[in-house]
Amino acid sequence: AHSQDWQTKVTPGQKILVCDVGGGTSDFTLIRVRQSQAEADHGAVQFHRVAVGDHLILGGDNLDLALAHYLDQKLGQPLQPRQWDVLVRSCRHVKETLLGDNPPERTTVHLPGSGAKLIGGGLQIEVTRDEAEQVLVEGFFPQVTLEDKPQTKKSGFQEFGLPYASDPAVTKYIAAFLTAHRHVDSSAADSTASDGPDPARPDLILFNGGLFCSPLIQFRIVQAIRNWFKTDQDPTWSPVVLQNDRLDLAVAKGAAYYGMVRRGEGVRIAAGLARSYYVGVANEANQLDHAVCLVPGRTQPGETVDLTQHQFDLRISEPVEFPLFVSSVRLADEPGQALPIDLEQMRPLPPIRTALKSRRRSDVGTVPVQLHARLSEIGTIEMWCAQVDQDRQWRLQFDVRSALETDRAAIASTGEGQGTLDDQTWEECQWLIEETFGDAGKRKPRELVSSLADVLQAERHAWPMSVLRRIWESLLDHQEGRKKSQAHEARWLNLAGYSLRPGYGMAVDDWRVAETWRLVNGKLAFNSPVCRSETWILWRRIAGGLTAGQQKALAEPLLSSVRSLHRRMVGGHVKGDVNFNLPESAEMWRLLGSLEWLPRSTKRDLGEMILELAWKRKCEAVRPAMIWAVGRLGARTPVYGPLNTVVDAAVAEPWIRQLMEHEVDTVSALAAMQLGRRTSDRHRDISDSGRSSLVDWLGAFSPNYAKLVSDVVELNQEQQGQVFGESLPVGLRIR
Questions:
Q1: Of 18, 39, 37, which Cα lies nearest the Cα of 27?
Q2: pTM (2 d.p.)
Q3: Calpha distance 97→656 (Å, rounded)
Q4: Where does the pLDDT of residue 46 fall: very low under 50, low under 70, confident under 90, or very high at 90 and above?
């Protein structure tokens, strides 16, 4: 709204508070207006982002749920799940109507009937404007003092499994954000002057997000800030509200403007990390009481920080933990600065637990190291522990994107638990990959895995995930080498999928999977059966890291072929090639069974077609793969997928009966176990009679499988490998 006159709206030294509250999240940012240092700008100003608050899962969705709970209680009778869903959706319209411009005094919510009274049994609930303001405005935007802090006790809504903020009061979070950054980017004069305004005071406010389409909510925030910072000397002070005409288009317009800025047009907002990162260190009593600043807030992505002023004692050849902390408040700390851990100002991130290994088995105890760190462009912190006066170093990678991206949850990385290799040993592995896939490499592809096993002194099923992911990185660096021959491409695809399986478990595995998709999908250099087969294996191995859209893209052409095959074989018109009975098709069936993001309707149709085809004579060669796929498609407990794509128990139970019509064997027993495995979830579990029959059928062949059907039991390591389709990386479990 101020594209033409923004230079007249702001002056150097002012502070802008950006309040962004959307449907699901809240974010707060402080921007300082400074005089441009470029001589060519002739007195123009620049914007500098100086603080970014923690992202909060708190937004319009919470208001909708609050109003729905209020109306549910007001109605005084239990609602059916379908009616509740309609009520939640209707509350969004009620919120926008009663808190919008020129609101009516009241509005009515209409809910459908249920059961036999679907048409005539509808319900009506009347909502007044006063009720909406009391529940939504007073509940989420109350008038609080500047010293009020959000409560930390877990309360509030937990619908849909979302990690909502612990306190619903948005105004408390704004107060806490402003006070936490009271002196950020302040001059000495700002910090010490007693007669000037509070350094925490913002001069201007920019509202963003659909929730602020309500003028009443905008007014409540402006009113709160005015009450916090007005003084006897300036009793009429109020922050200036910057105009934002299209709150619904702000993100799209901002993205387009950023594209202009990257081409040299427009005004760029200067910004560092706006966060500092720390690694915890233990004292002589092995107690964690201090943290060392690893990456300060002014660091730019890609910049390396060397902490050479300190030496640390690093334990090797035994399990250790590397705690990581982040602060959006302590932005002036220097790299290497040791500080007491203050959980009011430092938020813990998921640590890495690993064992730093050396090929020299006699190496135990501690070694002196210095730390080096780099924030990568993809949102990870890479930390090197370099041994003093030696050429050995160990590399660790922390995923810190949850501190930078609004909708990303902090997830602990589990893959490092089996150890981290020293770089000297890794360089030998890298040399083998270079000699196989590099331009001048002469080694035969079939020798690569055994050669790596010799260097690592372990068979490939025992390679730690940290080593596997570095193998994947090296393969990507040499991906052009797969074009040397069919054998090179087949080995490259096989090892790339193996080293990235199961597509999750390590920091930034989602990025690795995305890069693999970009380089491999539809880009085979040799379109031969062996390379196509290795491609299906690769996607099956990393299916857990693929998005729903990627899984759909893989499945659609295969599903089309399955439907065509089903029409021809079940209809008795088998003519021409039946591609899905070739050896290559075994991997296609396994891939389809591994795509857990497919809709339950697709899984149902696919499973029914497979069971009609599996005992046809022409499918005998690939029957084990088809039955394995049925088990995964109808599993009560998915390996990685969401529960809302699990096929209904009413679908799985007939599949079990069809399997039980045939003689039990290893594959059918595994599939039936997955279809009937007990979960204690009434929506997923099969009937008691169906369970009893299945337990009897499995009992003599596999008592362990029968136990998984009769009781809620975790899979053992061998069973996990059977469900996944091959061994999992050491230290990783599936559900």
A1: 18
A2: 0.60
A3: 51
A4: confident
